[in-house]
Each structure stands twice: as C-alpha cells, then as structure tokens.
C-alpha cells in the first residue's frame, strides 16, 4: 500500500531509534515484570514530529512472520510477555511505521521492522556499554560522563531519557537511549541541530513518566531477581 502524502502535514526530518532498559520499563508502570531481558531492547523507530500518518494501513503479523524469532528477542513487549502478543508491534507500526514509510527503505511492514532490527544489531548498544565498562549497578553514574562515552563511540550525541526520582528516591533512573538517524539513508546524526530546542514531550517513553535526563547522577538499575 503506497504512502499517502496528504498536504505535507506528515513531514518529518529525522528518525529516532529508541531503545529501552526493560528493568526501568517495569518500574515506570510499577509492573512486577517476570524476568525482563537483561539487555537493551527496541522500543521503536520513530520519525520525529509526526504520527499515525495512514490510519487505513493496518498491521498484519503475516508480513513479518519470518522476523518473529528476532522480534521476540530484541523487540519484546516487556510488559505483556506472553508469546503471541503483537499489540506492541501493531502500535509501533500504526503510530510510527506508517510515517516512516515515506522513505523507500521503510515503505512496507517487512522493511520497517527488518530495518529497525538491522539498525539495532549494527549499533549494538548493549555490547557498546559493556565494552565501556558501563553495567547496571547499585552505584550512580553521571549523565555527562555517560553521554560523552557514547558520543565518543558513535560520533553523535545521543539523547537519554530518565524516570524522575519518586518519593523517597534520591536520583533519576535511566530508562531510554535515543540514537538519531538521517531520513534518507538512515545514517547516525546528532539528535538536535545547533540551536534547536527539543519539542516538549518528544520521545517520552510509554506516555508515562520518562523525561530527558537532567545533568547529574542517575541510577542504571540491575535486574531484580523474580520468584517463580
């Protein structure tokens, strides 16, 4: 189904590969997830500034069935981990994928999800953090140091999203890392242009509590051991 270019209202400039830390996702919605993955997983591949570009282009699981083993591993629905759950992917396609489809490399469900998985593997955030010696810890990290370390590896400035401290907590908790890409050829670029101010609320987690991390300390929580 072709992308519908109506009146330019769905124009966008860059893509954002959003990865989230499952332990914080569970914390964010106060959901006692059972054994969330202990590696960074995909939240989505989001065009900036636009969503739900074609409401008649419905998600069809059949189109990505050969991607399912990778999808279940690297793009799981952390909050609803039962094996047949595709609601999360449906949401991401209908909200973001139908807009990303302006670009030929992303103009079908198979291409959109396949390209997202390929970018996730290529950027390999979990391995990069391990190589930098940045592991989940009961000790705090500093936002500036963390960003600088990632910027050295990727050559572009990422955006970090945190849960603000809850009552009785001392510091913010790292939840998401956004790496931005050029629209036409999906190459890394800075998340903000010089002088550009981030759009209010842009990139907020699951619509719940994540905000751009404030400078200063943050907590990168180790997975809790759950009882079966």
TrEMBL record:
- In Pfam terms, one family for this protein is Ribonuclease_T2
Q: Record's PROSITE patterns?
A: RNASE_T2_1, RNASE_T2_2
Q: Does the keyword Nuclease apply?
A: yes
UniProtKB keywords: Disulfide bond, Endonuclease, Endoplasmic reticulum, Glycoprotein, Hydrolase, Lyase, Lysosome, Nuclease, Secreted
Provide GO CC annotations from the record: endoplasmic reticulum lumen; extracellular region; lysosomal lumen
Presence of keyword Ubl conjugation? no
State the active site: 43, 92, 96
Gene Ontology biological process terms in this record: RNA catabolic process
- GO MF term (any one): ribonuclease T2 activity
Give its localization: Endoplasmic reticulum lumen; Lysosome lumen; Secreted
Q: Where, if anywhere, are coiled coils annotated?
A: none
Highest taxon listed in the record's lineage: Eukaryota
Q: Which reaction(s) does the protein catalyse, per the Swiss-Prot or TrEMBL entry? A: a guanylyl-uridine-RNA = a 3'-end 2',3'-cyclophospho-GMP-RNA + a 5'-end dephospho-uridine-RNA; an adenylyl-uridine-RNA = a 3'-end 2',3'-cyclophospho-AMP-RNA + a 5'-end dephospho-uridine-RNA
What biological function has been recorded for the protein in this entry? Ribonuclease that plays an essential role in innate immune response by recognizing and degrading RNAs from microbial pathogens that are subsequently sensed by TLR8. Cleaves preferentially single-stranded RNA molecules between purine and uridine residues, which critically contributes to the supply of catabolic uridine and the generation of purine-2',3'-cyclophosphate-terminated oligoribonucleotides. In turn, RNase T2 degradation products promote the RNA-dependent activation of TLR8.
Return the similarity comment. Belongs to the RNase T2 family.
User: Per its record, how is this protein called by name?
Assistant: Ribonuclease T2
**What gene does the UniProt entry assign to this protein?**
RNASET2
